[in-house]
Amino acid sequence: MPNTLLKACMLWVERGMAEIRSSSHRATNTRVFELITAQDIRSKRILDIGAGRGFMVQLLGNHVRSLGGVPSEVLSACDLYPEYFVYDEVVCEKMEFVHVLPFAGGSFDVVYAIEVIEHLRNPYDFISEMHRVAKPGGMAIVTTPNILNLSSRLSFLFTGFYEMFGPLSLDPLDARRQWGHIMPLSAYYLAHAMRIAGFTGIEFHADRLKRSALVLSLFLMPLMKLFSFLYGTRIRRKKPVVYHDNADLMKAMGSLKLCSSRSVVLSGRK
User: Fold this and answer.
1) How far apart are CA 216 and CA 224, in angstroms?
2) Domain 3-210+262-269 classification at class level
3) Number of other residues whose CB lies within 10 A of the CB of residue 177
4) Is the pLDDT of residue 19 over 70?
5) 27 with 207: CB under 8 angstroms?
């Protein structure tokens, strides 16, 4: 779908009768939408994990309907609080993030979780569940705030906190105490979790490049390249098998994409 048409579709959704709003960034939603709709999805089964109020499900539902399909035949959703889901063309199942997903194994062609995994205590188990419910050859998409962008790295250096991962409340009545941004995983560890679960062909995608991180990249990228090279040489000498298994991910960690994007979007195939 052309970018201008996509933006118009998203604007229509945001202003629709249901007034479904997204809690994640527009650029992140756009990137996920593009990855999912790069193929004809009318004959697919797609699962939104942590669907919230239903913004992305509605966006995909409108796309399916524009192609002559029926949203309920393509889309499924689940969330910890399904009572807040307001897109009435799809049923949102109740789920507990600390347990199994409420779906049979091998059920979906696409499974995605937008800005969900940073709220979870068991991210590796969660990725394994995504793998379980995906069909062979199916695609998984996970997004999370990118703690590897350079402004976030500097924030951690000077404050001990990554961007979007500040101090947490201890108030038992504060939902953020339980489900706030409690799991600052970098793109490397998310990719590792996907590999351990059995996903292959893992790719990193950027949503929006942060200006502050881009400026920092101009000054710090040469130094980062030097230290990354030296570190890689050390790992290759001491642990050649580990280096071989991780060389592509280590290289990606110093890329402009991961050093500058607001969120990171990972995709993989079962």
Assistant:
1) 11
2) alpha beta
3) 13
4) no
5) yes
Tell me the per-residue pLDDT of 147-186, one tens digit each, with 9 for 90 and over: 999 999 999 999 999 999 998 888 776 655 556 889 999 9
Distance CA 186, CA 150 (A): 12
Closest CA to 66 of 76, 54, 58, 56: 58
DSSP 64-121: HHHTT--HHHHEEEEES-GGG---TTSPEEE--TTS--SS-TT-EEEEEESS-GGG-S
Residue 88: both structure tokens together? 């009435």
Cα 84 to Cα 14, 94, 143, 210, distances in angstroms: 16, 11, 21, 31
Q: Phi and psi for 66 in degrees, rounded to 5? A: -65, -20
Give every CB contact of residue 105 below 8 A, 6+ residues apart in sequence. Answer: 132, 133
User: Do residues 106 and 135 lie in contact, with contact meaning Cβ atoms separated by under 8 Å?
Assistant: yes
- Compute the distance between CA of residue 199 and CA of residue 12 in angstroms, rounded to an integer: 35
Rounded-to-10 torsion of CA 268, 120, 263, 269 = 0
